[in-house]
Amino acid sequence: MNSEIVTQDYTLRYIEEEKKIAVRGNLRLASVEKYDEIIEFILFHTMAEESSIILDLTKLETLNSSGIAALGMFIIKMKEKDRFIKITGSRYISWQVISLENFKDIHRKIEIEFVVQH
Fold it and tell me: What is the sign of the dihedral through the CA atoms of 63, 50, 36 and 82?
């Protein structure tokens, strides 16, 4: 699988040396099903790592309700596999502050870290 997905609106990049998947831009796909390629990309690289991985959302400015639902389904898969995951978000992006902490209710092996950067 490729190490990145690049579109006009968003980019996903797997950074192997940091064990990190960086997501940036604006994700406003029409339905949860439209997120399948993105979730498959994240799952592939997460499961390829023997240790935990960081999902860096600090530069993801927009994620609609379908995207939040798809991300929740990813978290459920991590719970089923009993895998730890760390998600970094930005204190300056309101949807992240509102939504990311809720993922802790789904999976106990998740760490949410908010960074202060623009």
Answer: negative
